[in-house]
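The pair is quoted verbatim underneath.

:::
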Amino acid sequence: QVQLVESGGGSVQPGGSLNLSCVASGFTFSSSAMNWYRQAPGKPRELVAAITSVGDNAIYADSVKGRFIISRDNAKNTLYLQLNSLKPEDTAVYYCDEPSIGRGQGIQVTVSS
């Protein structure tokens, strides 16, 4: 059974940090490029970051460049997203995604004072 399970979300004040994790199972994680998406209420889905299967290259949305870091540990079948210098506009549900399989259930990130 293919599963992507996100964790690590929550509520933080502006300027704070969070670390999201996504544990994958049921497919060959180490062969898959992976993505983090987010979707805020009333807004379209946004690709936040993407990483190659071996983790040697990553791309970021302009809105998060320099603040977020995507990484992975193929030995643990886990994808990460480090969120730094958070802003209220980062508030959204964050999803990990494998392009040919789909996404997890999502995790809420709320940035508010």
Q: What stands out?
A: The radius of gyration is 13 Å. Residues 3 and 25 are 5 Å apart (CA to CA). The mean pLDDT is 97. The chain has no helices and eleven strands.
